[in-house]
Amino acid sequence: MKYETVIGLEVHVELATKSKIFCSCSAHSFGADPNDHVCPACCGMPGMLPVVNKRVVDFGMKAGMMLNCDINRVTTFDKKSYYYPDLPAAYQTTQWFAPVAVNGLVEIETSKGKKGIRIKQIHMEEDAGKLVHDIREDTTHVDFNRTSVPLIEIVSQPDLSSAEEVEAYLERLKSLLRYAKVAECEMAHGTMRCDVNLSVRPEGSDKLGVRAEMKNMNSIEAIKRAIDYEVARHIDAIENGTEELRQETRRWDDIKGKSYAMRTKETAGDYRYFPDPNVMPVVIDDEWFDSIKASLPEFPEVKKAKYMELGLSEYDATRLSESIAIAECFEDALSVCGNAKEAANWVISEVTRVLNAKGMSYEMLTLDGKVLGKLINLVLESKVSRANAKKILDAMFEDPELDPIKYAEENDLVMSNDTGLVDKVIAEVIAGDAKAVADFKGGKDKALMALFGKCMKQLKGNVDPATLRTMLIDAINKL
Amino acid sequence: MYNVKIDCSVAKKVIADDMILTKGVATTAGSKMLEGFMSLFTSEALVRLEEKGYGLVGKAKVGEFGFDLLGETAVNGALTADGVLKLAAAEAVLANEADVALTMDINGSVRRAAAQTGLVSVKPTYGTVSRYGTIPVACSGETVSLMAKNVADVKDALAAVAGHDPKDGTSLPDSMYVTDAATPKRIAVLTDMLANVNADVKAKVDSAVAALKADGIEVVEVTNDKIAAAKVAWNILMSAELCNNVSRYDGVKFGYRTPNFTNLDELYMNSRTEGFGELLKTAILFGSETLSTDNYMKVYDKALRIRRVVVEEFKRLFQEFDAVLMPACSTLEYTVDAVNNDKYMAFNENFYTAPASISGLPAVVAGGVQLVGKAFSEDKLFTLAEKLEKEGK
Ligand SMILES: [Zn+2]
Fold this sequence. Notes:
By secondary structure, chain A is α+β, with helices and mostly antiparallel strands. Chain A contains 16 helices and 16 strands. Chain A folds into three domains: about 5-285, no CATH class; about 300-410, no CATH class; about 420-475, Arc Repressor Mutant, subunit A, CATH 1.10.10.410. Chain B is globular, with a radius of gyration of 20 Å. Chains A and B meet through strand 15 of A and helix 7 and helix 10 of B.
């Protein structure tokens, strides 16, 4: 029998607002000491009242619009009660009755073509803290830095049917949310986390199979492995009766490559949702709605099409539009240098080279594309050689304020227009290495490279390589 | 009477009940759970009073989390005189220890105390006085409340504390404070509230009606069983919110922690079992049930609807009347014996106070009776209260 897999995802994304959702503590505690970013409100002390951070609603609406959702013009917050030491007030403020966005659609593309994935809803909520287990002392410490950091949870309909589609969907969410600049979406940083709901049924059946839920998956590769494992487990159970499938929450052990049922105690519970009387319904009037709508970026496809109209290849256009940081860098560089091909090459090969060398993601790019444009101009105007321009680019990553021409002048990286100097250097190099000259004349091309390198070094790279090469050969031939 | 007494030489003295957070002075909520609890900040209402020259003379003891009948559940024992329950904040004012009591009206105990002692109190329109820095119990209806010997002192204190506070998300913008100060002409007496009161209370109502009539106010008897249904709904909403609000006291972060635990579940259960009193535990269990998936629509959601009905019924009455007069309690004294025999009296006596609690409407107690008005009509209610005060002298 043939089977089909039915998958729905619940994706938690940390919103990139400066402060937390209900207090003014910083929402970014990467590198901070435990409990550095807490106040009586976000550690649940009595007497503090939640005041909604408007930016969180801005970002929630933006995310909803990016995923083609309807925005609830009156959106409310509710309390979800459960006990856990990382939840200081023993309730999480979330959206249960009227989430900010509903009924969305996200288009994905896989080897099987394009497909629409429906979004059930996006709701805003606060994150919980973290427990830190101290093995030496056999104790557990609580860190509230992350409590009340704003999250959105994006709940899809069960429209996904393979690990490949899940990957495409998650990549698409990342791209769209990063385009809107509402979230980092870095699974490795925990700013994107994923719950997978999966069931398997005979192909064509309209009845859903028994559902397994895997919580808090934090890498796309792990998710793919977990899905493949679960699908095999379900089919095995259905066909061979190896086990009785139960609706349950399972934990994926990525090292062992297996999933385990969690004790029911860890998953059972009635969250006793009710409207939070301390948070007034948020009313999104036309002015607010329109201002968010107007602030939306172009979608990646629109940018890609525009880039192809500029004469770029589809490959280049795709690479440039994948990430908003890269797209903006390219557009800024282009606005200064006016040469799409050059700007594309610099961004695709050079900028990404430096990012890779530094182990940085596209989103961490702080380079000003306009300054890159200036650098490209220096190359196009033959003021700086390509090789030296790359050195300047490296320096630009270190110092965002850097002015390329000033830096070139100060560090002797300006191309020499003084052919007299070039002649002089060539003459010295030839005179100093008679063997290499003889080898070259004897037909060994490699020997020329040695001489070329010496000249280039003495000229500090400030000469056009092609010109140097011609002048060098001329000089040897004249001997 | 005091949980903490403070030396204070300021002319205008205020006593805060132990639901009002005070930096540097313990706030216990009358519970073992918060014994010795030191808040990191002071309530906005007290800060505003202090800015206007009031000085804090101490913290008045309260029943556990302030929602009981009249302080009978205080962890360190109820305040009583001759076998009769007394509310500490009211006693402090009567004994001239303080000019004003700053209290939380969670379930009407402040109004009951004012009615029984002849003090004046105001439970202001919901959202007009910041709840920042007050221990949360029943957030959708509880308000900061003020009590003093006369209308003028209550009025002054209210003027000091009222006004928008950005730290409270339910605090109304100043632009909404359109005080209705028109001279009151007609009031209604809600007869549903008179059926079960004793002769003392009935006498208070009668003399209040007589005084108002004598002053040219038209008094009309009305009946409204929908408003009278407020109690049932309020008990549900209050208990549910209470259950949720006191969940934070779990022995992990602050407050009482049991010494008897070997794992997390025991830490939670034993801390709360040992730290909370009986009435509170009853309310927690009741509240938790009303919010369960099975009961939410049947119970909690219905209570929310009754709240809307009560609000609508009051709105209808206020098209005709400037205020609704009703008692604040069924008797002018609660004996310790009576409360020992019926531990849940607080869930029944709030029949008289729940209508204003659930609807967020202002209520002024004076001359032993309660006047409920439409939102922002405090000045009108004070005008009526002054007439009752004049009569009393
Ligand atoms: Zn905070």
